[in-house]
Design a protein that fits this description.
The chain has two domains: about 10-135, HUPs (Rossmann fold); about 150-220, no CATH class. It is about 25% helix and about 30% strand. The chain is built from six helices and eleven strands. The protein has helices at about 20-35, 50-65, 85-95, 110-115, 115-125, 215-220; strands at about 10-15, 35-40, 70-75, 100, 130-135, 150-155, 160-165, 170-180, 190-195, 195-205, 205-210. The strands form two sheets. The protein has a six-stranded antiparallel sheet, with no helix packed on it. A hairpin with a 2-residue loop joins strand 6 (about 150-155) and strand 7. Helix 3 packs parallel to helix 5 (about 115-125). The longest helix has 16 residues, at about 20-35. The radius of gyration is 19 Å and the shape is elongated. Mean pLDDT is about 80; it is low at about 105-115 and about 220-225. It holds the Pfam family Usp. GO terms for molecular function: phosphorelay sensor kinase activity. InterPro entries: Histidine_kinase_KdpD, Rossmann-like_a/b/a_fold, UspA. This is UspA domain-containing protein.
Amino acid sequence: MINVYNESILVCVYYGPNSERLIKRGCAIANIMKAPLYILTIDPKPFDELDAEKLLYIEQWKEYAHSNATAQFIMKDNESRPVSKIIAEVARDNNITQIILGQTAHSRWEQITKGSIINSLVREIPFVDLHIVSVARYIRDEEGNYQKGIRAYLIKDGKNYQLTFSHRKDTEYEGIFFKEADTDFDNGIFRFMKDASTLHVLVIDGIVTELTNVDINTALGLDDSVK
């Protein structure tokens, strides 16, 4: 493939279902521009200490890379440096011109006061285009069990988290709430991003008791193995 536009695409992924979405976006852009594609993941632990679930994701990312003739998978394990530093280093080494990564929406004020990986990358590699893929506002729900997703937030409340629809200073997480249909209670699924990974957690009466990711297909009754 001839790199007509002199572009190189870098997709930064972390463990979770959102990684597939990011890679597909990167593949689409790379194919349009006839550009090489790099898939990068970073982990603070050595590769030998990763659990089975993480290894499964890594194998899937390698398969994506192998299925694209111009793609290459890069893993940086046993890393203690800031993520933005590592991404910038890989970008320079591979002449990257466009980077794709996922991030939940933050207010402009939060970015200014707290900083973010996006701001760090802009400072580190100012001449690289950044594509931010946000949390999807829909779920595959053919049975109509859930209403259309709306913006919501989680507030720490003791050991639990309280669901709210107004942003506050003490907001812990921002995401999308999918309410169960035909109920007056705030029951459903809250989708958000944590450490660059997309999570789905159960909400019961407006309360999240634990930030444990639930299998979205099982929750929606889409798992064919469940009878």
